[in-house]
Specification:
Layout lengths: L3 H43 L3 H20 L14 E2 L11 E9 L3 E10 H4 L1 E10 L9 H16 L14 E7 L3 E5 L2 E4 L16 H11 L4 E7 L1 H12 L3 E7 L3 E8 L15 E5 L14 H8 L8 H6 L4 H16 L18 H8 L7 H11 L6 H32 L12 E6 L1 H5 L1 H15 L1 H4 L2 E5 L3 H21 L1
Parallel strand pairs: 2-5, 5-8, 9-12, 12-13
Antiparallel strand pairs: 1-11, 2-3, 3-4, 6-7, 9-10, 10-11
Helix pairs in contact: 1-9, 1-12, 2-12, 4-5, 6-16, 9-10, 9-12, 10-12, 12-14
InterPro entries: ATPase_NBD, Hexokinase, Hexokinase_C, Hexokinase_N
EC number: 2.7.1.-
Catalytic activity: a D-hexose + ATP = a D-hexose 6-phosphate + ADP + H(+); D-fructose + ATP = D-fructose 6-phosphate + ADP + H(+); D-glucose + ATP = D-glucose 6-phosphate + ADP + H(+)
Length: 500
């Protein structure tokens, strides 16, 4: 039998343990309350209700009109949208025939492609492509060295043509050139380099015509080929989409970066001073990543990311919706939760402090984790951030952060598309039930299922039932390669008609 003293001692120990447990529970409650407050604040600041999205779309349409009126953006005034003239006034119809080539240069790798077209009945008979890596040393040497390397690979690819590809007797090979760097286009097949990006630093090339330089390199290889089309990947996607569906009116890239292009009536382009094209239309490269508006829902994380970027104050829209930035925004939010609420226990994970360590691919994999215990989230937190173990509640908080950031991005992307439709007057019911197809390419749209579904449902809500049924978003893959070859074919066909 325990003595009163012993019982008192036991009672004291139990009381002390209970007090410790109570303090732990209180600390835990405060921790989750603090993390929840960060999440709720993020939700409020990222909120993009329909009313706000309509304001964004109106601002987008207004910026489009301003950019079509003048090139004031070049001196820092006017619209944030460049609305670049592409000089492309004829898109593939499906009638194209013959053998055509494409060169897709978008970074440290490039791709060469050939396509045999058989007209309306046979369409694409055969297609082949090959990827080539550019040695890092060539990215900062002279322009001749770079273009000679590219032309050499192109010549090797041409020499590997088999009997399934046929070039008509006496006809010169024609090449569509996708060049995904800032260019001031001066015709359908010429444009001067404004600046290099993506690690290239060949200063002597800036201000020169990229097509002329590559044509010289092709001649030095003894290759009978001419570049007849200069485009970017967005215009290529529009071309590839139009080839399979004549209702394609615009194209959007939603990948590492983002951009849009669409078909505009020349009469609605005040800054166009050239002769009217026969089609009456011209493809406009919007460069919409640089769109900015007071209606965009910005957070402290976006402001800090922009300030620390290589281009502060620029590409604001892109920094909210593209694959290059979404994962980084999530990292910054989680870092605040770790700092303010000890989300990952008492110590802030060192890896979480490393900029860009969390990619949008990682974000996608965690957000779309369908396992009952969110095991994939736990694995990724361990692999990427070095966090050994997490509870379900922590993993769910990470998923919630991903959802807020992805939802805002997808809804803003939908608002951008809605802005294009408003500019074209296709946001209202058409008496002849005109169909509008938006061609989309890019890894964010293709692989981030939640993003794609959220974007599409948001656009439907903005359009309303009466109009939504006539607007379709269609995935079009490899527009940057196939689209360039198709445009070269379309342009060749137009020239033949003119000669006839």
């Amino acid at each position: 039998m325990r003595t009163p003293v012993a019982l008192a001692a036991i009672t004291a120990v139990v009381a002390a343990a209970a007090a410790v447990l109570a303090r732990q529970r209180l600390r835990e409650a405060k921790r989750w309350a603090c993390a929840g407050a960060v999440l709720r604040d993020l939700e409020e600041r990222c909120a993009a209700p329909a009313g706000r999205l309509r304001q964004v779309a109106d601002a987008m349409a207004a910026a489009m009109r301003a950019g079509l009126a003048s090139d004031d953006y070049e001196i820092g005034n006017g619209s944030a949208l460049k609305m670049l003239l592409t000089y492309v006034d004829s898109l593939p119809s499906g009638d194209e025939k013959g053998l055509f080539y494409a060169l897709d240069l978008g970074g440290t790798n490039f791709r060469v492609l050939r396509i045999q077209l058989g007209g309306k009945e046979r369409r694409i008979i055969k297609q082949q492509s090959e990827g080539v890596s550019i040695p890092q040393a060539l990215m900062s040497r002279g322009s001749n060295e770079l273009f000679d390397f590219i032309a050499s690979a192109l010549a090797k690819f041409v020499n590997s043509e088999d009997e399934d590809f046929h070039l008509p007797e006496g006809m010169q090979r024609q090449l569509g050139f996708t060049f995904s760097f800032p260019v001031k286009q001066t015709s359908v097949a010429s444009g001067t380099l404004i600046k290099w990006t993506k690690g290239f630093a060949i200063d002597e090339m800036v201000g020169k015509d990229v097509v002329a330089e590559l044509n010289k390199a092709i001649k030095r290889q003894g290759l009978d080929m001419k570049i007849t089309m200069l485009i970017n990947d967005t215009v290529g996607t529009l071309s590839a989409g139009r080839y399979v569906d004549h209702d394609v009116t615009a194209a959007v890239i939603l990948g590492t970066g983002t951009n849009a292009a669409y078909i505009e009536h020349v009469s609605a382009i005040p800054k166009w001073h050239g002769p009217l094209p026969k089609s009456g239309d011209m493809v406009i490269n919007m460069e919409w990543g640089n769109f900015k508006s007071s209606h965009l829902p910005l957070t402290e994380f976006d402001v800090a990311l922009d300030a620390e970027s290589l281009n502060p104050g620029e590409q604001i829209y892109e920094k909210l919706i593209s694959g290059m930035y979404m994962g980084e925004i999530v990292r910054r939010v989680l870092l605040k939760m770790a700092d303010d609420a000890a989300l990952f226990a008492d110590n802030v994970p060192k890896n979480l402090e490393i900029p860009r360590i969390l990619s949008t691919l990682h974000m996608l994999m965690m957000h779309q984790d369908a396992t009952p215990d969110l095991n994939i989230v736990g694995v990724k937190l361990k692999e990427i951030l070095g966090i050994e173990s997490t509870c379900y509640k922590t993993r769910k908080m990470v998923v919630d952060v991903c959802e807020v950031v992805a939802s805002r991005a997808a809804r803003l992307a939908a608002a951008g598309v809605y802005g294009i439709l408003k500019k074209l007057g296709r946001d209202i019911a058409s008496p002849n039930e005109q169909k509008t197809v938006i061609a989309v390419d890019g890894g964010v749209y293709k692989y981030y299922t939640f993003f794609a579904q959220c974007m599409e449902s948001t656009l439907k809500d903005l359009l309303g039932e009466g109009v939504a049924s006539s607007v379709v978003i269609k995935l079009v893959e490899d527009g940057s390669g196939t689209g360039a070859a198709l445009l070269a074919a379309s342009y060749s066909q137009c020239l033949q008609y003119e000669d006839d």
